[in-house]
What we know:
34% of the residues lie in helices and 21% in strands. It is of the alpha/beta class. It has one domain: Hypothetical Protein Ychn, Chain: A (3-Layer(aba) Sandwich), CATH 3.40.1260. α1 runs parallel beside α2.
Amino acid sequence: MAMKLVVKVIAGADEPERVAQAFSVAATAAISGVDVSLWLTSEATLFALAGNCENFVLEHSPPLNELRDTILAQGKITVCTQCAVRRGIGQEDLIAGITIAGSASFVSEIMEENVQALVY
């Protein structure tokens, strides 16, 4: 029976430890073979844009862009529809492989059997 981990990130660059922890947990789970879905909401939506993960630095933390790429290679990353619209972000603005979806999709994912959900 496969397990799935859904991680919702609401923190932005102004809360670097929360951001780094969320990405690190999601990437570690993905590498371990867990089905991972990372949701970027609120200020975290900006990490779906080119350069923002590359410019994020937190001492003693792996580079955020490497964690993002690991998650994309093994799982999926989704940006909240409303959060994207509020920031003028469209699908064409996102890094390849990242999608936009609404709360109905998020609820559907977390209600699946054998799902663990975390919010950072």
